[in-house]
Amino acid sequence: MSRPRRVLLYDPYDDFLQGPRDFTPLGILYLSAWLKRAGHDVTVLHEEIDALPAGFDVYGISATTPQYPKARAALDRIREIAPGAVVVLGGAHVNALRCRREAIADGFDFVVWGEGETTLQAIVEGRIRREDVRPEQRIIEGAKIPAHDGTIDAVPAPDRDAIDIRRYGYPIEGRKAATLMTARECPFKCQFCSSAGAAKSCLTNSVSVREALPPASSVRARTPARSRSNHEAPCRPLRATGRVRREE
Question: Is residue 106 part of a domain?
Fold first, then answer.
């Protein structure tokens, strides 16, 4: 492996949500766990843009569409405080082709859509370099992590230690709740989903919800239901009540 790199993973503060810390930034927490396992020095930040620090080799930004204006503002700040750094954009916003092209035109070094772990690692380690590819080649579909015995067990648990988990949560029946992801990919074609129909099946974890929780977690799983195999994955299509146009 090349020398360990300093990486900052940033999720712009979620002004558009009811509470800015209703949900943990699971996407970048998964990326953090993957890169740390590969030996890199990773910092996770979920704050306002003025909290972005200098001193990192690579900045990874995750954004939904409402967050994209802040992602662009974060790019401008990074160019000022760390002009030599590589800046990568991922997240739900870039599931749409037009948004991917727009992000490259706006100055992001790379746009990664789909699963980001292995592709971001390749960028961090210099195996994919901006100067070696044309602008259109800097839009990269993330390589999928191979299934392990029909599961996603090869994906490490999200790096919740990278944030103060006590600052997050939303109330359900008067108790603080947190989010979990127990599957990747989905074969259904919900009209509101930008990735609808992109997969043939679901891949799930083989561990139970209780086993997936960190030992010191104050979050309780209501049931100890065990995830099923990818053939029995508990995925169900959601019926839309109105038409939503999805950009191809």
Answer: yes
pTM, rounded to two decimals = 0.81
CATH code of the domain containing 29: 3.40.50.280
Q: 3-class DSSP state for residue 81? A: helix
Give the C-alpha separation, 90 to 115, whole Å: 9
Q: 27 is in which domain, residue-wise?
A: 6-142
Structural domain contains residue 78: yes
Task: Kindly report which listed range (63-72, 174-183, 215-224) carries the lowest average pLDDT score.
Answer: 215-224
**Radius of gyration, CA atoms only, the chain:** 18
Quickly list H helices, 14-131: 26-37, 68-81, 97-105, 117-124
162 near 29, Cβ under 8 Å?
Answer: yes
48 is written with which tokens?
Answer: 């306002």
Cite the beta strand spans of the chain per DSSP E.
6-10, 41-45, 58-62, 86-90, 110-114, 139-142, 170-172, 175-177, 183-184, 203-204
Q: Is 209 helix (H, G, I), strand (E, B) or coil?
A: helix
Most confident of 15-19, 21-25, 49-53: 49-53
Q: What share of the chain is helix, strand, coil (3-state, %, to 5)?
A: 30, 15, 55
User: Is 61 part of a structural domain of the chain?
Assistant: yes
**171: three-class secondary structure by DSSP:** strand
Q: How far from chain centre, in Å, is Cα 18? A: 20
How many Cα neighbours within 13 Å face the side chain of 128? 24
**190 falls within a domain:** no
Total number of domains constituting the chain: 1
Distance CA 232, CA 226 (A): 11
